Amino acid sequence: MARSKVENVGILAMEVYFPSQYVDQSELEKFDGASAGKYTIGFGQTKMAFCTDREDINSICLTVLHRFIEKNNINLHDIGRLEVGTETIIDKSKSVKTFLMTLFAKVGATDIEGIDTTNACYGGTAALFNAINWVESSSWDGRKAIVIAGDIAVYGKGPARPTGGAGAVAMLIGPDAPLVFDCGVRASYMCHAYDFYKPDLASEFPYVDGKLSIQCYLSALDNCYNLFCKKMRTIDPDFKGLLSMDGLLFHTPYCKLVQKSLARVSFNDFLNTPVNEREKQFPGLSQFNKCVREDTYFDRDVEKAFMTYSKDLFEEKTKPSLYLATNIGNMYTPSLYGGLVSYLVSKSPDQLIGKKFGLFSYGSGLASTMYSINICKDMTVGSKLEKLINSLHENMSWLDKRTCIKPQQFSDLMQVRTENYHTAPYVPSSPIEPLFDGTYYLVNIDDQRRRFYDRKV
Ligand code: ACO
């Protein structure tokens, strides 16, 4: 295939999948004996999607990919790379990507690079960067890449359980895209932390140090944001951080943490402003002049003051990105991309043309990056943007077709998953009827622990 000049590399199309069943967070509060408002106000969560034992990481990625290919009429011979980002590990060797190859095998398409990438919620971003880098590299052969980010986020009984979720996002990557990545400004912060990790391979649940995970998330944000601004100013000396971006999107463990994160960005802007200029931009906040960034992760006064200061900025630049997160929960690797979808459907294509937004990706352990996307001003890609957004609106309509499951039944279904996580041979007990049409499901696991799937039609 002939190589052509690569310009405007980015996202050409997207698709989201979330399970057909959810539990209502206010009902879960009552069931768990938590105080009324803890999950809905304290976390900012409305509904939590979950999978029964009929779905696993392979099935949800097959579901989103099959729908994506069908809806966008993708010629599988035009795909040269397929990447999966996930932290839902059910096989220490065989990648999810290899299961997805069953769809390509039907048309004899096997010349496809890429495998799985893992580090907590960051794997989707790493997979996306791999795909972008490939299209921009000397290895590129002119075909497009597909990136899948998918996870089933489940916690054992306790305070973390209401911050679960499940879903998958598919993205088509190539040149002349409506959503274009800024070059040379990705800002990463990576280090070692035991904030959230999954060392018990016989269990689906992570080990979590909740408070440490919040501190790690916020410190990663501080580092990424400040470095990102520095890098942006090398290509745009007038870049003013948050104020120069139309949207700022975050990995969303739960919505309230994202609101606090936007406030944290404003606090960083405050600290980065010369003291004698602060009063003009941040009136009434001079009492925080002597604050040391690293000492303030759990400083209530700082948090409250900057949440108040950034309220309108949050409403304008970030809140539109939280729609899927509040209705699904933390999808882990797809979480940030669910934020992108939510942001895009909150506006008309005309309102989006020429806009810039920042994205903050965080995966415990820890790996994090802030980067930026521009909506291409070139009107020749306008129809691609419209098609992308129309397709996402169709995705969103599935939210209302879901079934609400009572907390007791949810808890029982979680128990079935927990008890059988490592069982083989195994035939799932949950019914197929509640699944959306087009959903892949686990038929059985045989005595060699091989998994077999079918698709509900
Ligand atoms: N009405 C309104 N708000 C309430 C109520 C109520 N009735 N009850 C409690 N709240 C508020 C609390 O004041 C608190 O607010 P704050 O965050 O402003 O302090 C909030 O609800 C949460 O209450 P906590 O008591 O702090 O919650 P808890 O300690 O039980 O658990 C945690 C929170 C640590 C996030 C836990 O759910 C967890 O471990 N989750 C998984 C880890 C996680 O998501 N980490 C984030 C980054 S890493 C990642 O992405 C996985």
From TrEMBL:
Binding site for CoA: S213, K256, K260
Pfam families: HMG_CoA_synt_C, HMG_CoA_synt_N
Catalysed reaction equations from the record: acetoacetyl-CoA + acetyl-CoA + H2O = (3S)-3-hydroxy-3-methylglutaryl-CoA + CoA + H(+)
Annotated ranges, domain Hydroxymethylglutaryl-coenzyme A synthase N-terminal: 7-178
Active site: E87 (proton donor/acceptor), C121 (acyl-thioester intermediate), H251 (proton donor/acceptor)
SUPFAM superfamilies documented for this protein: Thiolase-like
Domain Hydroxymethylglutaryl-coenzyme A synthase C-terminal: from-to ranges: 179-456
GO biological process: acetyl-CoA metabolic process; farnesyl diphosphate biosynthetic process, mevalonate pathway; sterol biosynthetic process
Molecular function GO labels: hydroxymethylglutaryl-CoA synthase activity
EC numbers: 2.3.3.10
Source organism superkingdom: Eukaryota
Keywords: Lipid biosynthesis, Lipid metabolism, Steroid biosynthesis, Steroid metabolism, Sterol biosynthesis, Sterol metabolism, Transferase
The protein's annotated pathway: Metabolic intermediate biosynthesis; (R)-mevalonate biosynthesis; (R)-mevalonate from acetyl-CoA: step 2/3
Family: Belongs to the thiolase-like superfamily. HMG-CoA synthase family.
PANTHER family from the UniProt entry: 3-HYDROXY-3-METHYLGLUTARYL COENZYME A SYNTHASE, HYDROXYMETHYLGLUTARYL-COA SYNTHASE
Name the record gives this protein: Hydroxymethylglutaryl-CoA synthase
Source organism per UniProt: Leptidea sinapis
